[in-house]
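Format notes (please read before filing issues)

Several people have asked whether sequences and structure tokens are stored in separate files. They are not. Every record keeps both together, in the order shown below: the sequence lines, then the token lines. Line labels are part of the format and must not be stripped during preprocessing.
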Amino acid sequence: MVAVTPAAYETAGEAERGFDGLRAGADTLVARITHVRDGIGWIWVVPGSRTLPEVRSSRAYERYATCQNAFRRFVVLLAKQPALELPDRRAPLRRSDAAR
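Then the structure lines:
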């Protein structure tokens, strides 16, 4: 695991759209590196538009510089991900055979 998001998504499609938006803006992401409240270490956080962070490191790092490098690696990995071809969210969902 490289990063986590505190956002809760109703469907897998919403989560995929959120990831695709993050991937599309990878080159403009800026992280705030902060000390862990309870414990030892540093985490990186990409601030979101609400009070919750957009995404953050999945673990604490012992050194500040290591945390910086982890964020840089995250951005590179994110930018390398191919764009997702997502269905139009206005289109009706198909029911599976199991639900019929």
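For reference, the curators noted about this record: The longest helix spans residues 64-80. The chain has one domain: 3-84.
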